[in-house]
Amino acid sequence: MKRKAVKIRSNQNYINDDSYKNMGMYTMMFYEDFCRAFSIDLNLKENGNSFYKIDSKNQKLIQLLEQDDYMFLSDNLDKLLADNISDLLLYGNANIEVIKIFDKENKLVKLFFKPFGSVFNLNIGNYEYCFFKMSIKKINKNDVICFKLKDFGYGRYYFKRIFKKLNKIDPLLEFDNNNLTEETINKIDFSLLKIGHKLGWNGRKNSNKYLSEPYMLYLRIQFLKNKEKWLKILLKKYNKKLISLGEKYGFTGEIEYKQIATNLDDLYEQFEQGIIDTKQFYEKMY
Q: Domain limits of the chain?
């Protein structure tokens, strides 16, 4: 029986798009804020330094994930997830290869998650053929984790359009030759609000002519909730893969984090009731 070849993902249109090669100031801010470590943005002050943990009956999973530096939960996981977000913003999808290391007795001793950026992938039978600029790599489908922007509720070109709009703001700064007039500032404020309000992002501004202080705080909360939603979706797929591997190699466990959505809602309610002010709100958070 003939095996069907299916082209499942392609980054070619993004790779050839100059809007990602020359990011303007606000575009870079947006990119950096979304890719910033989850444990920085989402770890409330009351939680202390520990943000991620492995929920398992024994230590086998953490031993598989921890490498020689023993920094999977404290550092490497955040870097991995940030790479995933970066690929999603830039290319509309993120690919990760699950690398398994075995000892001489064919016993699983290490697990790695390695992001890779291919031009496009072909799904043929049990394998994915990943085409790079200068090479082709064959990977077992069971060893690939894939995220698409539609997993998060966005179209593939959603952030591409945002990047292009943000890049159009920088000429306003250049036109004013570093002597910003009130009119230019208002134009920038309005543009940032129009582009980023659905995502809770306002260009790192502490004030905006068009927004009240409570609404500025509300936007910040929506930004953090949005990041937490992304984190949940990312970890859900990683955990699904870990459960599958655990059934095969004899381990249990999932990656968990300390959720913040309820804490944010409680803090905002205190703010609305006048129990705390903006400064106290941020002090309780960070």
A: 5-285
